[in-house]
C-alpha cells in the first residue's frame, strides 16, 4: 500500500510541476527528469483522462519550442495507449508530416506507429482521417528503419479501404528497391485487391459498417438464402442498433455524399453465397474473449455471416455469462458485466432475433434478481426473451418480473411497461420470419453438438400461436391496469405509457396480419376520461378508431363477432360521456371499477373518483371533459328552425378545429347521426 502511495505522490509531483512549467524559467532539464520519473510510475499508477489531457496540452504547447527528441519522447510515451484521443493523434500526425525527414523525429514516429496499432486493436480508427493516416505512413515507409513496421500496419489499415492508385505505385516502387521484403509483396496484393473492389459497380456495403437498412437486410437474407425483402416497421430501431454496435468514425459524415466517403466498397450485387462473402474475412484474427469479440465491428459481422462460428460463439457465450454473473471470486468488474449485457442487447437488435442461451441465462438470473443490479441492461435483454412453452413463459419470465414490478417505483414501472410492449412486438416479428418467410433461427442452444431446445417452435402451430399472443397480451394489459390503479402521483404518465404501448402493438399486429390479438380492457378504455390531459383522450380515440377499422376489414369479415360487439359497447359509452355528457351507464360503471369491492361502487359518475383521485384531479378532468364536449352546444343551433345543413356543418367544423385532429376526426366519424349531417 505504501508503494502505491509513493507512486501516487510521484505522479502528483510531476503533474504539478508540468502545470507550473514555464519555458523561460530555464529548467528544461528538471522537466526531463520529472517526465522520466513519470514514465517509470504510470504503469503502477495509471493516469486519469484529465491528467492525460494535461500531458497532451503540454506537448502541443511546446512541440516546436524544444528540439530535444528525448524530452518529447518521454512526454508522448507517458500517455497510455487506451486513453488516446483521436484529435490528439490527428494533430500529432499532421505535425509529424512536416517533420518526418528529420532524424530527430524518428523516435516519435516509432511511438506513433505503436499508437496506430492500439487504435486498430481498440477499434478507434477515425474513418474521416484515413487520407491523413495513409499520407503519413506512405511517407515514413520510405525510411528504411520503418519499413518492417509500417508494412503490416498498412496491411491492417487497408481493411478500412480507400485505396488510391498512387499508393499501389509507391508500394511497387519500394518493392523494386527491396526485392527480399515479403511484407511488401503482401501489401501490394492487398492494395491491388482493394483497388479492384473499389472499381466494381453495384449495390455496395461500405466497410466497416453497413451503409443502411437495405444493405443489412441483404446480408441477413444472404445468410438465410432468401430473396431481399423490406424490413418491418421496426427498421428505425434496427438502424439505431447498427449505429450503436458498428460505430462510424464521425457522425457528421452521414451527410457526406457517397462518392466522398472514406470507406471500401464490397460489391454485394456480385456475391451469391455466404462463402463468397467470407473471403473478405480470410485474414481477420478474431479475439478469443467473447466480450472483446462483441465489441469489435469486424467480429460482429463475421459472427453473423460465418456459419462455422455459430456453435463456437454459443458455447463461449454460455460459459462467459455463467462465469461473469456467478462471479464468486469478484474477478469481473461491474462495468464489464454491464458491457456484455449491453453488447448482447445491441447484437440481438442487429440480428432481430432473441438468442436461446441468452434467454436461458435470463430465466436463471431473474429468479434471484433484486430488480436493481444492472436494471437498465436486464430490462433491455428482456425485450428479446424467447421460450418454448406457456409454462416456461410464466414461471421463468412473467412471475419473477411481476413480483418486482409490483414493488417498483413509478419510474421503473414505466420501464417495465415499455419492455413488455417491445417484447410483444419482437415476438410478432420473429413469428412472421419463422411462419411466413421460413427463415431459420440463428445461434440455437447446443449440447454435445445437438440442439437441446426448440424455442419458438410453438410459432409454427397456428392455434398455439394465436393463444400465446392473446394470453400474453391479456397479461400485459392486466399488469398495466394494476400499475395505474395502484399509483396516484404518476397515474397520468402511466396511462399515457400504456396507451402508447397499445398503439404500437396494434400497429405491429396490423403490419404482420395478426389483428385483434391484443384486446384493450375496459379500465384502460375509460380511465383516460378522467385524465387531466387531452393527449390521453386523443390516444384512446385513436385506438378505438383502429378497432373500428378492423370491423370494416374484408379480411376479418364474419370473425371476432364477440370482440367487435365489445368494441361497439366501448364506443357507445365513450360517446355518451364525451358527446352527450350523460356519464356512465350501469354496465360501464361495473366494468371500469370491477376491481373495487361492491360496497364501494357508487351510483353517480363523480363518486368513483373519490378516494382514488384528488379534488384537483377531478376538477381538471371535468374541465377536460367540458372542453371536449363543447360541441354539444351545437345541438340547439342545429335544431333551430330555418338552420341549413351547410351552416351547421361550418359551425361544427369551427368548434372541432379547436380540438386535436385525432379527437375531432373521432367525434365527426361516430356522431354523424346525432349531428344530422
UniProtKB/TrEMBL annotation:
One CC-aspect GO term: inner kinetochore
Keyword annotations from UniProtKB, A to Z: Centromere, Chromosome, Nucleus
Biological process terms in GO annotation: CENP-A containing chromatin assembly; mitotic sister chromatid segregation
The organism's place on the tree of life at top rank: Eukaryota
Signal peptide: none
Annotated localization: Chromosome, Centromere; Nucleus
Pfam families: CENP-I (PF07778)
Recorded family membership: Belongs to the CENP-I/CTF3 family.
Protein name: Centromere protein I
